[in-house]
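Entry 12.
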Amino acid sequence: MRISMWTDSYYPYISGVTRSVATTKATLETMGHEVTVFCPWYPGANHEEGIYRFQSIKAPTKPDFYIAFPANPKHLIALSEISPEVIHIHSPFNLGKMGLRMGRLLKIPVVFTYHTMYNMYSHYIPLIGPMASELVEAGSFITANQADAVIAPSSAIRDYLLEHNVKTKIFVIPTGIDIERFRKGNPDYIRHTFNIPPQTPVLLSCGRLGPEKNPETLLRAFALI
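Predicted 3D structure (tokens):
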């Protein structure tokens, strides 16, 4: 199957969405599918076959994030030549919306993975954060209702969408993990490095350290165990 992915986050920018898109792309390709990605340009981005980057500018509230201008005739011509059978969008805005429009234009299904609970990200927008968060949330639900199918990475996100009257059929499909990356690890490294006795439990959290991830609550919970 020929699959075209549209995302506002991709390498070299680091995020959970970036990792999810890259993992999904790699997995689908091992299954024999043809996958292309339409995404923003970032400084230091490598040229890769099947990756189409739109000219972009720095986001005013998050300088390491770039916002694409989704108006590159060459890329749109390339899309028609690729002739995808399905479009998979990973953002409810900008390039995600563009992917949705391309799906309608090409008369092919559009699948939307709803990665982010936007009500948890208002701290990135000073002063008007809560108001902006509500507007962004509302816009994301509109996109979800315009898609032909929605993928929720967790049952919590599925329930969140249902609570906000998303009517499109929702499938819970967690983002996979490339377990090969962890097979060569040394299970005793942490104990030896920090002199932790063998009988002492070791609790590990893997993830990005951001306010929306609430690491303080995790540390308090660890202390109770």
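Annotation: The longest helix spans residues 129-146. The mean pLDDT is 89.
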